[in-house]
Amino acid sequence: MDLSAEITSGKEKYIRLQADFDNFWKRSEKERLTARSDAQGEVIESLFPMIDSFGRAKQQVKPETEKEKKIDTSYQGIYKQFVEIMRCLQVAVVPTVGKPFDPSLHEAIAREKSLEFKEGVIIQEFRRGFLLRDRLIRPAMVKVSSGPGSKKATAASDHKSSGQPTTAGDDE
Question: What are the start and end residues of every segment in region (Disordered) (predicted)?
Answer without folding.
Answer: 143-172
